[in-house]
Write a structure and sequence with these properties.
Layout: E1 11-19, E2 24-31, E3 37-43, E4 50-52, E5 58-60, H1 63-74, H2 81-90, E6 99-101, H3 102-116, H4 118-129, H5 134-153
Parallel strand pairs: 4-6
Antiparallel strand pairs: 1-2, 2-3, 4-5
Helix pairs in contact: 1-2, 1-4, 3-4
Bound molecules: zinc ion (ZN).
């Protein structure tokens, strides 16, 4: 198993235990090279989350691809790598349906970034939405501004608690 931090192939298993009522094996691993720890889940293939692309094609959900997109959106922003990593690698476990369409993933990411960092949100939105005009883009930023204003007025302007249960999108 390759280390997701430094890409070394040499990692060792610290412990294994059943997860998700026995449907998966959770393994805690440590990288021999950089000593960082990460978790892997082993589960039967038929339970793998499948993503329906816009083209209609199905492909297996890949948390590394999601993490790459999040990293690009959060580049040089004060966003914890740990938090976006947890989102990407926890995504599959938070999704009970065996299939999800790529747009639903996009909406979940937007919901996550909206609470985290406005710049990262806008960056992701611009890629995800593929705006056809500058006006449309500005409109979206203004809406974001209004939503943030409402959140602050409601006293919910604090940073999200990373230990909180991830919220599910009602758009799924
Ligand atoms: Zn490593």
């Amino acid at each position: 198993m390759r280390c997701p931090y430094c890409s070394t192939d040499d990692t060792r298993v610290i412990n294994s235990r059943p997860s998700d009522e026995g449907a998966a094996i959770r393994r805690r691993r440590e990288c021999v090279a950089c000593s960082r720890r990460f978790t892997t889940y082993e589960r039967a293939q038929f339970e793998a989350l499948m993503v329906r692309k816009r083209s209609g094609r199905l492909e297996a959900f890949n948390p590394d691809k999601l993490l790459d997109k999040l990293r690009i959106a959060c580049n040089k922003r004060p966003v914890s790598e740990k938090l976006i990593r947890e989102f990407a690698y926890g995504f599959e476990d938070e999704t009970s349906a065996p299939e999800i369409d790529s747009e639903a993933i996009g909406r979940r990411v937007l919901q996550f970034l909206q609470e985290l960092d406005a710049v990262a949100y806008i960056r992701f939105l611009s890629v995800y939405h593929d705006f056809d005009s500058v006006d449309r883009f500005i409109e979206e930023i203004q809406q974001l501004d209004e939503r943030r204003g409402e959140a602050e007025a409601a006293g919910a302007g604090d940073a999200p608690d990373p230990t909180a249960e991830p919220r599910r999108s009602d758009t799924n």
